[in-house]
Specification:
Pfam families: Response_reg. By secondary structure, this protein is of the alpha/beta class. 55% of the residues lie in helices and 9% in strands.
Length: 268
């Protein structure tokens, strides 16, 4: 039986030429086949099927989690990268099926390790992403299927800058066992975002009432719904806000919670 020894192909979507040239050189030097970089999702060749796509989270046009989700729907494995993304933007990319995140300032060997892991069907958790995942689990705990001590210990080690192979060797774990831990971590993170993030309609109400100062009636007219529906969206958005912000008082008015959360998430 023949073995396919062709190098793994890597596609880069990033609108910064200096960044794409640097990444392309890193990957080519490590033996990957690097496709012509695309400056946006819209210019990315839909007929290509790279082994992995390294996607910047701040792109012209379709960007962030929406870009990751589009690539995932095409059956492509995605490694997200950014130099300025917020924790929520990174976690939203994970929820959209990104299999890892690397800061643009990371050393070349980390990018190569990340691409190797993701192209091979696993995940890559940088120190920064590990910290985001731990904090998100603390702020937005799941009532069922939450990560356990093994997953948390792995994230703590990675957040401290330890390499995953170092931790695996120290703990005497197989690569498959570590992969299972990572799989559960990413699964919980995705379910957590779906559960605790505002829905599109809730987000729309948060902007109209919380940021633009519309009354329930004005927002209802803008959304073509009843005022009572606007009130319901505000109540559910408040419940999610309080659940994910332990310091928020239970008596916070829904419109106040909407305004605070909309600004925190960059909606306003």
């Amino acid at each position: 039986m023949s073995v396919d020894r062709r190098p793994v192909s890597v596609a880069i979507i990033d609108d910064h030429p200096i960044a794409t040239e640097s990444l392309a050189a890193r990957f080519a030097g490590a033996g990957f086949s690097v496709l012509a970089p695309a400056p946006s999702l819209e210019t990315f060749d839909r007929d290509t099927t790279p082994g992995i796509v390294v996607c910047d989270l701040h792109l012209p046009g379709v960007s962030g989690a929406a870009a990751v989700a589009d690539l995932h729907r095409r059956g492509l494995r995605v490694l997200a990268t950014s130099g300025v993304a917020t924790p929520d933007e990174v976690l939203d990319a994970v929820a959209a099926q990104a299999r890892g995140f690397v800061e643009k300032t990371a050393p070349a060997q980390q990018f190569v390790a990340a691409v190797t892991a993701v192209a091979g069907g696993s995940f890559h958790v940088s120190a920064r992403l590990a910290g985001f995942l731990l904090e998100d689990a603390h702020r937005r705990p799941l009532s069922r299927g939450e990560i356990g001590p093994g997953e948390r210990n792995l994230l703590r080690g990675l957040a401290q800058g330890d390499l995953i192979d170092e931790l695996r060797g120290e703990w005497g774990m197989t690569a498959a066992a570590v992969h299972d831990l990572l799989d559960r971590i990413f699964d919980a993170a995705r379910r957590r975002r779906r559960l605790h993030r505002p829905s599109p309609r809730e987000a729309e109400v948060m902007v109209l009432v919380g940021c633009r100062g519309m009354s329930h009636r004005e927002a209802a007219r803008a959304m073509n719904v009843k005022a009572s529906v606007v009130a319901d969206y505000l109540r559910t958005a408040k419940a999610k806000y309080v659940a994910s912000h332990p310091d928020a008082p239970a008596t916070i008015p829904p419109s106040t919670a909407a305004a605070l959360w909309a600004r925190e998430l960059g909606f306003g």
